[in-house]
Amino acid sequence: MATLWRALIVEDEQPARASMRKLFLKAAIPFEIVGEAGDGREALAMIRELRPDVVISDIDMPVMDGVKLLKAAREEGFDCRFVMLTAMSEFEYARQALEHGATGYLLKLSLDLQGLRETMDKVARELEQREKLRKVDKWFPDESRAEPTDHPEMNRIIGYIEEHYAQEITLKGLAEFIRMDASYVSDLFKKKTGSTLTHYIQNRRIRAAKMLLAETDRTIGDIGHQVGFENDNYFIKVFKRWCEMTPNEYRKQAEK
């Protein structure tokens, strides 16, 4: 049975919320609408209470707009996916939302079943990947949570790596994420964590790979790609450097 993901609709106009509900039903997608909110402040309270997997949020709303809602949810540590509802005139805000981690956006005036299905299929894939990677935290309970530093922006970087380590992560991208100079970020991260960014990301990926090697029958190449290594040979080289054995040797040892 397919997973049924929990969705929260955030839209200040009731007819628009009703229309979204109808589209969800017609689209036959694996999402259940568990709540509705009329503005960002109300939505943030519902996120805390309902813990939805995805938030479908209008951008232009009273009290707290959709972009501010996304930022507030991330600051509080919620990793639900966000899809923004926008008019063409609000596209700059949609771009900002994407920069802060939104999965995508839907144009309200031209929203149809195909567009909804395509976007929500992408959300479902991200959620499935998130659940797979969360198993690492259960498998390595003592190692899965990074020790916080005394620097809030370095903690933001650590949180970003924890959530996105299977994706491409660059120093430039992390520096832009916290709006700091890349060279300064590199030096400060090592000072606060005792590890270079490269080693920190590699370590996170290798821990994920160890879980997948022990608990799944996926190929070495598939596992390397799933945890963020594009090249099989590089994955094996890095794994051996960290574990003093190859992925195959680790798998055989785990089986015993």
UniProtKB/TrEMBL annotation:
Residue stretches in coiled coil: 106-136
InterPro entries: CheY-like_superfamily, Homeodomain-like_sf, HTH_AraC, HTH_AraC-typ_CS, Sig_transdc_resp-reg_receiver, Tscrpt_reg_AraC-type_HTH
The organism's place on the tree of life at top rank: Bacteria
Residue ranges annotated for the HTH araC/xylS-type domain, each copy included: 155-253
Record-linked SUPFAM superfamilies: CheY-like (SSF52172), Homeodomain-like (SSF46689)
Domain Response regulatory: 6-123
Stored Gene3D superfamilies: 3.40.50.2300, Homeodomain-like
GO biological process, one term: phosphorelay signal transduction system
GO MF annotation: an example: DNA-binding transcription factor activity
Modified residues (4-aspartylphosphate): 58
Record keywords, A-Z: Coiled coil, DNA-binding, Phosphoprotein, Transcription, Transcription regulation
Matching Pfam families: HTH_18, Response_reg
Listed CDD domains: REC_YesN-like (cd17536)
Record carries keyword Transcription regulation: yes
Protein name: Helix-turn-helix protein
